[in-house]
Design a protein that fits this description.
This protein folds into two domains: about 130 residues, no CATH class; about 200 residues, Orthogonal Bundle (MetI-like fold). By secondary structure, it is mainly α. It is flat, with a radius of gyration of 27 Å. The relative contact order is 0.09. The chain contains 14 helices and no strands.
Length: about 350
Amino acid sequence: MNTEERNKEGILVEDAKSAKKLTRDMLAELEQKEKSPARRALDFFISVCPMLAAALAAAEYIYVPNFERFVSSNVNPERYLIFLAVPAAIYLFFWLHALVRYRMGQKKYYWNAVHKAPLYSVLFLALSALDLLTLKSGKLLYPFIPWVNDIINAAIGDWPNLLKSCYYSLELLFKGYFIGVAAGLLTGIACGYSERVNYWINPIVKVLGPIPTATWMPLIMIIVPNLHAGALFIISLGTWFAVTLASRTGIQNVDRSLFDAARILGAKGHQLVFRVAIPSAMPNILQGMTQGMSSACISLMVAEMMGVEAGLGWYMTWAKSWALYNRMFAALVVLVVIFNAVTNALNAVKKHALRWQNGVK
């Protein structure tokens, strides 16, 4: 082999080593075509749209007069402006951070801001439209549809009860979820690895799984000793079904050659399960856990609205029965925020656990 061929081989080896270090984000950035000045200007305008939409919503709230019947009803009007300013300031901070990173050659933060900017802009505009239809014009019937500042005042005025309800809901949610995940992993892995176990468990999964959560409530109220235990069973059941299906599918789809190779190397029994089957099926298992959380959140609301004596679902039912619709909407907003935070946290764990799929160490 002459010197030129050796140099070429060395270059190829270095390129191969570099390619292993590339992530999907880097590859996507390399594949992007160079944008024209007009397109770059449009992207910049799109990225600042959320701040413009927030300013427009604030201007609408300040300068458009209130409906004559609500002139004296909108107490603490500055709270809505703070509500608009906080997310706008957070976006401004991350937007400036993205611009600094863009100057340094790390463009993914800026493209991420451009990608999400239309959604954030629409959210601010939707708040402005709701304010116009309620506080400013009275088109939507009050008190059934309160304006945003009225909901904020209700949440601040009754925050001790809301905080207590959040605690009870999260406690019930996580208890039922982890019980369902543990049971789902056991049955799913056992069914996926053993045909004999799958023969007996699969009919139970097919029968119990598709039944809606609310259908179980009358039976649960008769069988279980208290409503708390019944709510735990409902939440666990929905989570168990999702995790079982995903785990079983993941185990069954593992390449059989991996088991054969492990057996040749001396692996037996539990080693095949914990060293081969479960790691290979981890993407499916984590996907099932994510779906199980969605099912658990739905089951939680059904359980709380139909009899549990504490929690956000109970709070919403109580507020509705007393025609306190602003408090009911406040609990609904808190519920949406909590469920999104829990789901995003679970997705972050899933992304971290599967970071090898994106080439990240």
